[in-house]
Amino acid sequence: MARSNYTSEDIKILSDREHVRLRTQIYLGNMTPTSYPVPLFDGDDLSIKNIEFIPALYKAVGEIIDNSIDEFAQIKTKNKVLKIEAEPFNGWYRIGDNGRGIPIDKHSSGKYTPEVALGSLRAGRNFGDDREAGVIGQNGVGSACTNYCSSEFIIVVNRDGKKYVQSFEDGAKIVHRPSIRKGPKTRTGTQVSFTLDDKVFEDVAIDPRLMRNKAIEIALTNPGLVVHYNKEKFKFKGMEDLVRKMTNTYGGSYFRFCAKHEGLELDFFVIDGVYESLDEQMFTWVNSSLLFDGGLVNTQFVNALVDKTIKSLAANAKRQKINITKNDVRQNLLILANLKITDPEYDAQSKTRLTGPNLRKEMSDMITDQWKSFARKNRSWLDSVVERARVRHHATENKKAIIEHKKSFNRKIKGLVDATSRYRQDCSLLITEGESAASMITEARDPATIGSFPLTGKINNVYGNTVAQVLQMG
What we know:
The protein is an alpha+beta fold. The protein has 3 domains: 12-236, Histidine kinase-like ATPase, C-terminal domain (Heat Shock Protein 90), CATH 3.30.565.10; 239-410, Ribosomal Protein S5, domain 2 (2-Layer Sandwich), CATH 3.30.230; 412-472, no CATH class. Helix content is 34%, strand content 26%. The protein has 15 helices and 20 strands. Strands 3, 4, 5, 6, 7, 8, 9, 10 and 11 form a 9-stranded mixed β-sheet that branches. A hairpin with a 4-residue loop joins strand 6 and strand 7 (174-175). Helix 3 crosses helix 5 and helix 8 runs parallel beside helix 11 (360-369).
């Protein structure tokens, strides 16, 4: 029951730290264990497993990783290295890169820049209009949120021959003065170590498969980037590198749809022969981050692919008198997409569902422009779509015919002279060639136990006909 003595004392003002720790779901996403299908990569193989985890916990780790990916997206260095050390069950992580390093000078706020960048909400470098496609950070809240949700948070920056070290405790409630000393002249980069706080999260454990997979995903979606995860090392020429090996292993096939526009890079891999399901399965990474909840881009690509497929097979379907549906196309399809977008729009800070930009035209044009090549390389897949439609069509027609045929069971059959006995097991039916032979038998038969039925006309050849076609012959 609400109190009746509502006063100004009831109005509370929370600090950024307090608000993030109290309402973590606003900043990092769902705080409830949730199960998602995840494409687990292992060598040249891919398996889809449902993994339960706390999205906000996973996002807190991802925010620090995203900083390194954003740094790599803005520099042209060839030798890019990301190191992730993790103890997922304990909530401890160390993430470092060999980028330029956060500037070590003092910020206009009076604090050192690393403290501002990683310890303050609404502080970041991606608020301008000159961002590169592939940059993840947008709102300047992610890293600070992770800091506020950690029992310990340590920054190490190497830049300009200096080494900057600063630690935070109890969700940045305690901020230690930074140590700035002489460092290696040739070493640059930022390293962040942190332990997620069990006072904020009910459970700080994350499935180790999910974190290892995160490292592989980063390497897959960033060609040439070397990713170290604990004692493993991952590097790919691109997502196509894995897709090619995977389809060779399973004897499947794939096609790459791709397009490039200002602030936008699209890469879609349509894979057949690797996945089996009545529905398609699509996984999309936007700026190296997996969309667990999919979103607009998934729907628009699948719709564009389905529409073009049905349109291209329309003449074939008409000849066979069948109707190709969306479900005929979607079956057994696996789609992997790697997108780089300058201004992605999400439904929340957790960034699990993409809501914009609207790419319907770009994807439709891309599929149309590359369709001839796709159709030439995937003739067998297109044939399988038609075959599924044919089988479904005939199954539907057969079902209708059987239902109609059952309705005729109580109708009188022309030419049948039935036996009159109630004991049907004692009765016989004589089949004669023509009506004249039937009439001759009628005089000699026992009407109680023997019936007769004349065959007239020509016997039909039913080889290759469907049930519906046979029943229509009468």
